[in-house]
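Q: What structure does this chain adopt?
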Amino acid sequence: MDAVAPTAAGAPAIRCAGHERGYPEFLDRAARIANGLRALGVDPGDRVAVVLRNEPAHLEITAGSALLGACAVPVNWHFKHDDLGHVLTDSGSKVVFVHTDLLERVRAVLPDGVRVVEVAVPVGVAAACGLAAPPPTGRYPLLDDWLGGHAPLARPAADRPPTVIYSSGTTGRPKGVLREPVSADRLETAVELFLEYFAVAPGGRTLIPAPLYHASPSQHAVLALAAGLDVTLMPHFDAEEFLRLIERHRIEQVQVVPTMFVRLLRLPKDVRERYDLSSLTSVVHAAAPCPPHIKYAMIDWLGPVLREYYGGSETGAVTWCDSEEWLAHPGTVGRAAGTGGIAVLGPDGRPLPPGATGDVYLKPADTWPQFTYLGDPDKRAAMEAPGLPGYVTIGDIGHLDEDGFLYLSDRRHDLVISGGVNIYPAEVEGCLLALDGVRDAAVFGIPDEEFGEVLAAHLQTEPGVRLGAAAVRAHVAERLAGYKVPRAVVFEERLPRDDSGKLFKRQLRDPYWAEQEGTG
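A:
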């Protein structure tokens, strides 16, 4: 990770939960971490696991690993035994950095020979996450003491390492996406494109509210640091705190997920109007479909500063659209930008005409690195489009319009086929989120003897709101076809989402199918 080192007073910094570090201190700590890793036996090309919440140390370890030519692997700190053990083993990491309160979880699945560096949970981070900051255990070297015992690495590695990012594990075991190294020239081009598409100037101010263990915020942070931006991290998303940080630090650019929009819009109007958000010039969102009524409301509130892209960990951003383009093409996720490409293919592998729904294939931009999956190159090969070199699918279904704008229907693995009819749960979820009193919704297929599958809807309501299943079905029936009305309606205290808003739908769906298998 190459970063600009500002020297002027009031220069950009990295801050989180009340703590701030200027770039000179950040770069010095990164260089000491690099030398410390070398002393632990980490070589160029090796991997280092990072099991930390959002805080400056997360970025310092990533930067320090890159200086050595090693690869930092961000690990979802929510992972429990099986998924955590899989990632630590599958990644082949030689060292793991871990917050004190997560040590026992890591120790239970730590592969033999892996070294541990303990990281104290900063007081501000602990408070933001509702934790009592635990004292260091004393079992392992403590990050600040450990890096203080090493001089800065004198000679950074000549070559940048490949990178690894793991999927969320929402549909199965987390998969490691291995990206080839990026040359200095391509990194420079990537930074220029980042500044252009994210609509922020060098030295500008950005806020990262989503977890760094996900691909989008991780890539955002790397490019923001390479561009020398002023970076504010949130250890945990809180809607009003988000607004407060924008006002306090005069934030110009943020990247969010649609779930955050929902939480922001549910703040009382007087709370939303309490904060000065006029510094915002770019609010980028991605990672999940945004219901149109939510996006209309956000544009009405903030003005035409929303920008959306679509892509994946494997492909990077391929499509883009600004507010004006979206308002002219409601529901779109944008059209191919730069050297990227989109194709929608039918079951026979041939391109479909505008308006026809099929499997979406993406051609990453030329600046995006080639990728494969750790330990599963066959999966990478299976994603490729027949007869379209360079195009891969990340599992989405959708269509293009006459102007080349892409519209997503749903994920291929979420598609429900009921009585031979295709149903896209995302459409029903959007309908349910428009029902007063519904805070969150998950719709999926459950077994049915007659139709093969029918829909189930699991809902989280606003505090104090009581809805009945009949009212929910009536709401959907008034707006969508009868076969899209959920057969089962279940009310949950909370749906299983992670901090970035990704929904672990399989946790809700699997018991229905397991019950059928148990009675078959």
